[in-house]
Design a protein that fits this description.
The complex is a heterodimer of chains A (425) and B (287).
Chain A lengths: L1 H27 L4 E6 L3 H6 L3 H8 L3 E6 L2 H13 L6 E5 L3 H6 L3 E2 L16 H6 L1 E2 L2 E2 L2 E6 L1 E6 H7 L7 H11 L7 E3 L10 H11 L5 E2 L2 E2 L4 H14 L11 H9 L3 E7 L1 H6 L11 E4 L7 E2 L1 E8 L6 H14 L2 H9 L9 H4 L2 H21 E2 L8 H17 L5 H19 L1
Parallel strand pairs in A: 1-2, 1-3, 9-12, 14-16
Antiparallel strand pairs in A: 3-15, 4-15, 5-6, 7-15, 8-12, 8-13, 10-11
Chain B lengths: L6 H28 L16 H6 L3 H35 L2 H16 L2 H11 L9 H7 L12 H27 L3 H8 L4 H12 L1 H15 L3 H7 L11 H11 L4 H26 L2
Helix pairs in contact in B: 1-13, 3-7, 3-10, 3-12, 4-7, 5-11, 7-10, 8-9, 12-13
The chains are: A alpha/beta (425), B mainly alpha (287).
Protein name (chain A): Multiple sugar transport system substrate-binding protein
Keywords (chain A): Periplasm, Signal, Sugar transport, Transport
Main location (chain A): periplasm
């Protein structure tokens, strides 16, 4: 028995050693330039100042990052990955990871992410949205859920307590809305897109109990969707000008310039709101989780290994090494030191004393609380971008008055969803 | 008799072959895949005949995009020519040579600006909270003016930016054309007591018919390629109010669905319609 155990441990050690050696060997073979297609992120820009470090680590490889804004990045990654595949690493997000994975455009990251870089340290919510079909496909560079960020000074002046329920939110938004004084009750996203207006609408839909599909049958066309849309349109009466066809930039821009009382947005907003370089409301802002029953929109963006530009195992391993290095604890620590709140993804960093010292206990508590209501609101399917974008158009038409019948819009979307599923089969 | 030489053919053949390959291969491929159901996420796909073309005519976004494209063409071409002619005449009539030189330079600036930069500048200028153009309205009425969010005004607003770029440029061309005309017909008209507007309406502009028709065709073709301007300023919104055919085809091919066969069928139809319409107009208005 002992000899069997010895043999088993010997094999295990041999495998471990072989794995380590092959990993080191593959890493040592890295050369040339790893091409990355991404969207602008301060954390990625910071990496570019440490190219020598990666060159040393990889045995000679460098990297180049091309940046495109979110919508263009989505279109370009899709076009590149499905045709010539010139990029070794793609920036993907929760909305298109299913499409990229099921189409074979990216390789499972877990197969090439060196264990010593500790993938399990990433925030669990971000790991969840990076997972499709039981495998992790990207390492997060940003992500999180939603926070309700509000102007303490305005609420105090009006004698309003920070809302904790949707009814309280509606009431507060209405009372705080004073356009003649340049203050708007809320800022929503109206611009079409699965990651734009639909993203902000989904917490209402899911909060009211809505579901997208039951198997392959669309079930979203119901009371929850109607109520969510009515609520969203109702709140839009108090939304800052420019947000009717705007997205993240317009709504956060209006808040950070001091023109909005309450904003429910993705967590990186908190970092922007306390940074004097980007915010005119520093020191006036409070944080809470989204009012019940709203769910937080769990999301994550990250780096994935392209398959076409990395045809063999060695090049995939090099791309994996780059991603691991780019998202390592050391680089995350650099991002913390550079005050890049929205670029922090590791629990070890967010639970650190340095984090608490920099951002204070309130924000840490709000992040912990919002984690409890953060959910995957979208349909985790390769077909989601198509469906979400179509609803985005109908929703934008409802917001801007091109159409007024919510039920008709949902019926049109249901017909579209049925065609979409049929076409995919 | 000149000696026959094959030299012109030797020099002409390579570029013509390259041009033919560049022009015909993508076109032929677009026609080919428009008869299939190829999608970006599925490299296979099968022959579906005219299914993509038939589907287009029950697609409300396609029908809307045809309408938007036609409206865009009519508005931008008409306004550009109108602005160019009026400004060109005003410059010719009232500006000194020195003033003309300065204004010519100023009028050329918008068209030199990259389209995307111009679109961003104007998008910000029209912003309801911070925009310099909407600011006076906000000051007077106390209400913000959000022209890019209204389905009624969005297309017209983007068209104004297009006219700003091309109308001023064409005004310079019209001015230079007027400067090349012989003075005698103008003098004869004045001797006949023709009023100023009559001189231009019945003498100058008819003499410029051929170049003006050329300018019209250039603008018609240029207006078909307004994707970047509209994409940056409205992304086809609000809703689908400014979604032109090329933008919808791009959305279907790369942004939303990855349905490149469906997108190709739109591109093929657009190419056919453009060719037919331009040929008919060219034949009818040929100077």
């Amino acid at each position: 028995m002992k000899s069997v155990k010895t043999l088993a441990s010997s094999i295990a050690y041999a495998c471990l050693l072989a794995g380590s050696v092959s990993s080191i060997a593959l890493a040592a073979e890295c050369s040339g330039t790893i091409r990355v297609l991404a969207q602008p992120r301060d954390g990625l820009t910071l990496l570019e100042g440490h190219k020598d470090e990666f060159k040393k680590l990889s045995g000679g490889a460098s990297f180049e990052i091309d940046y495109l804004n979110e919508n263009d990045r989505r279109a370009k990654t899709k076009a590149d990955a499905s045709t010539i595949g010139k990029y070794n690493v793609y920036y993907v997000d929760e909305a298109n990871v299913a499409l990229f994975a099921s189409s074979g455009w990216v390789a499972p990251l877990s197969d090439y992410y060196p264990a010593e870089y500790d993938y399990a340290d990433f925030d669990p919510g971000r790991q969840k949205v990076a997972t499709y079909d039981g495998k992790a496909w990207f390492a997060p560079v940003t992500g999180g859920g939603d926070l309700m960020v509000y102007r303490k000074d305005l609420l105090d002046a009006a004698g309003i307590k920070p809302p904790t329920t949707l009814d309280e939110l509606k009431d507060a938004v209405q009372k705080l809305h004073q356009p003649d004084k340049g203050v708007y009750g809320i800022a929503l996203r109206g611009q079409r897109g699965s990651g734009a207006n639909v993203w902000r609408w989904m917490p209402y839909f899911k909060g009211f109990g809505g579901e997208w599909f039951d198997g392959n049958t669309p079930v979203f066309n119901g009371e929850a969707a109607v109520k969510a849309t009515e609520t969203y349109l109702d709140l839009f009466k108090y939304s800052a000008p420019g947000t009717q066809t705007g997205s993240w930039d317009e709504s956060t821009g209006a808040f950070l310039s001091g023109q909005v009382a309450i904003l429910i947005e993705s967590t990186p907003l908190a970092g922007l709101a306390i940074d004097p370089k980007t915010s005119q409301v520093v020191g006036k802002v409070g944080y809470l989780p989204p009012p019940t029953p709203l769910t937080g929109g769990g999301y994550g963006h990250g780096l994935a290994i392209g398959t076409k530009a990395n045809p063999d195992e060695a090049s995939k391993a090099c791309a994996g090494l780059f991603i691991a290095w780019a998202t390592s604890k050391e680089n995350e620590q650099r991002r913390l030191e550079a005050n890049q709140f929205g670029e922090l993804n590791r629990t070890s960093i967010m639970a650190s004393d340095a984090f608490a010292k920099l951002y204070g206990p309130d924000l840490g508590q709000a992040l912990a609380d919002t984690g409890k209501v953060t959910a995957v609101n979208f349909w985790q399917s390769a077909l989601w971008p198509d469906l979400g974008d179509r609803w985005g158009i109908i929703l934008e038409e409802l917001i801007t008055g091109s159409r007024s019948d919510i039920k008709e819009g949902l019926a049109e979307l249901e017909g579209f969803a049925k065609d979409l599923v049929a076409r995919s089969q | 008799m000149k000696p026959r030489t094959s030299l012109p053919a030797v020099f002409l053949a390579p570029p013509l072959v390259i041009l033919a390959v560049l022009a015909f291969v993508p076109t032929a491929y677009a026609i080919y895949i428009s008869f299939r159901n190829r999608e970006l996420s599925r490299p296979d796909g099968s022959f579906v005949g005219l299914a993509n073309y038939i589907d287009l005519f029950s697609d409300r976004r396609f029908i809307n995009a045809v309408g938007v494209s036609l409206t865009w063409e009519v508005i931008t071409v008409t306004l550009t020519l109108l602005v160019a002619i009026v400004l060109g005449i005003l410059l010719f009539e009232f500006a000194s040579m020195r003033q003309r030189a300065v204004l010519t330079l100023v009028f050329l600036v918008p068209v030199i600006l990259p389209r995307v930069s111009a679109a961003f500048v104007w998008k910000f200028a029209f912003h309801p909270l911070y925009g310099i153009i909407t600011y006076p309205y906000k000051m007077i009425t106390g209400q913000p003016l959000d022209v890019l969010s209204s389905p009624a005004t969005a297309l017209m607003t983007v068209a104004l930016v297009d006219v700003w770029q091309w109308g001023l440029f064409f005004a310079v061309i019209v001015l230079k054309l007027l400067e090349t005309l012989p003075p005698q017909p103008f003098e004869a008209a004045r001797l006949d007591h023709a009023r100023r507007w009559e001189i231009y309406a019945y003498v100058a502009l008819p003499m410029l018919k051929a170049p003006l028709i050329s300018l019209t065709f250039i603008k018609m073709i240029e207006s078909l390629r307004a994707f970047d301007l509209i994409y940056v300023m409205t992304r086809g919104g609000p809703g689908i109010a400014t979604e032109t055919l090329d933008m919808y085809a791009f959305s279907q091919g790369f942004i939303e669905s990855g349905r490149i066969s469906y997108a190709s069928s739109m591109a093929v139809l657009m190419m056919l319609a453009t060719t037919v319409i331009f040929t008919v107009i060219w034949k009818r208005v040929k100077p």
